[in-house]
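User: Hey, my collaborator sent me this sequence without any context and asked if I could get a structure. I don't really work with proteins. Can you help?
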Amino acid sequence: MAIREQLLEYREGQTLLEGFFCHDDSRPGPQPAVLISHAWGGRDQFVERKARRLAWHGYAAFALDMFGKGKRGTTNEECAALITPFMQDRALLARRIGAALQTLKGLPQIDSRRIAAMGFCFGGLCVLDLARGGADVRGVAAFHGLLKPSGLPARKIGAKVLIMHGYDDPMAPPEDVLAIAKELTAAGADWQLHAYGNTLHAFTHPQANAPADGMQYNEAADRRSWHSLMQFLEEVLR
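Assistant: No problem. I've predicted the 3D structure and written it out in structure-token form, which is a compact way to encode the shape of the chain:
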């Protein structure tokens, strides 16, 4: 095994972006790939660790950048300011994540016919919007993602969809869960939703420890959701 890592610059319009690409260079032939969308703080070590873990399993992984090279949030206020333009303009969100997908598809190490996407929190919303927009990906997986509809014209969803959700997540209350179930069914999607009881937002992030704000790491839900992801990727990419 020879895991290779590199930072890749790319653009969406005039915005310079920088993603993290990771793959096993010892594997022959183009590899199936996973696009990873970060939470509201920007591309960080958390998603880079996920990319390395996926590379170990034989998937090329690209941790994208939604905000711009070097742009990160460290406080709730800074993070909220970073995602607000995208929450207010979901067409901008679609263009930005679409640029990352096209960058990944253009890499010689990957099989452009076998791509999935996954995301955390705000990144979960991003990959759900990728599916909503009819992107050419095999599947999308959202971990404690925001579930609000895009407001853009509805399209048939061809990608398979996996949503992993903390049932007590205040950022995606039960009415949002019911609404996205109806939305995905109406769009003809092959979808599944795993809800973890007694589980809050950000359940995959070991540093999440703010239960009063609805955010708390949950080891069991983290482990179970990763296992579900591995099964899902095996189904859609192998």
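In plain terms: The mean pLDDT is 97. You can pass these tokens on to your collaborator as they are.
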